[in-house]
Amino acid sequence: MKKFLFAAMAATVCLTSCSNDNDEVVKVESDTQLKVNPSIGLMTRAAKSAWSANDQLGVFVTTGTINSAYEGIASNLNVPFTYNGSTWTSARIPLTNNAATIFAYYPYVSSVTDGTAMAVESTSQTDYLYGTGKSTATVLSQNVDIEMKHALSQVLFKMKLGNYTGGAGNLTKVVISNENGGTALNSTGTLNIPAGTVATATPQNLDLTASQTIQATESSFSAIVMPVSALASATILKVTFTIDGEEFHHFFKAGTVWEQGYRNIYSFNLNDNGLEIGGGDNGNGGGVTIEPWTDDDEGTITLVPKV
Questions:
Q1: Residue in 198, 52, 217 with CA at minimum distance from that of residue 121
Q2: What is the pTM of this model?
Q3: What does the radius of gyration of the chain's CA atoms come to, in whole angstroms?
């Protein structure tokens, strides 16, 4: 059967390329072009929960190293693939018997030239995704599945009223900030797509808006953040909630880590004398839970950048 397939392919190539000895362009049949199938699984269903029409991936078709173009064709690096509602389409990328290793990221940016140092940031609250093909692609195996993962981290604040009598409980602003000379929180960085690592730079606070009312039943507010390494002390990173025009603060404890691909859940009770952390899902009363970045809780509101 394999001999028959190769013979048929050879005949097809001869029919399309040998009819004119002066024609140096080899026509490639449409079924030999690359097809990608990126998935958003349970580990990547949060800010981006499903593909939508006109979503675009950036795809690197390579020899195995992300900046090494497949078949030496420079245009095979950072190819936009567009979702039409059912499949992903792109300019035709012909495949040969040589194996192509596929890397991908979301969302597509035309200016990306180095897959080991792609610019990322948290200010816009973009949920950057990245992935590597589960198999290589060749002329005999054009379909490549790609599991997309989160490049950044997420914080999720769960809040409910305790013995609070200060107003309606209107939350209007959330600021995560470096304090007392701390530099743990960054606003920009670079993503190494094959390694799946983020190098951070530019320490900066994250200023977000909200328009929600905290009630006796728990509400959740989520934000995308750059990864944070273990805090050296408990006085260098804090979150400030503006509720009914008043500020309520919480400092994150020493050793806190916001790891890439994970979400960090903080549960608070709002009382007249401030915020009390407690009642977390981890069952130890600490009010802090760390888990893989899974599907958002029903009713979770994503915080947006301050305008």
A1: 198
A2: 0.84
A3: 24
Phi-psi bin for 184: left (phi > 0), alpha (psi -120 to 50), beta? Answer: alpha
d(CA 200, CA 225): 11
CB atoms under 10 Å from CB of 283, counted, come to 8
Indicate the SS3 state at residue 48: coil
**Residues near 225 by Cβ (< 8 Å), separated by ≥ 6?**
122, 152, 153, 154, 155, 176, 185, 206, 258
CA 167/CA 165 separation, integer angstroms: 6
pLDDT at 300: 80
Of the CA atoms within 13 Å of residue 134, those in its CB half-sphere come to: 11
d(CA 62, CA 74): 10
Looking from the CA of 200 toward its CB, the CA atoms found within 13 Å total: 20
Q: What amino acid is encoded at 198 in this protein?
A: V
Taking Cα atoms as reference points, which of 151, 220, 208, 201 lies closest to residue 177? 208
* Phi and psi at residue 294, to the nearest 5°: -100, -170
pLDDT of residue 48: 61
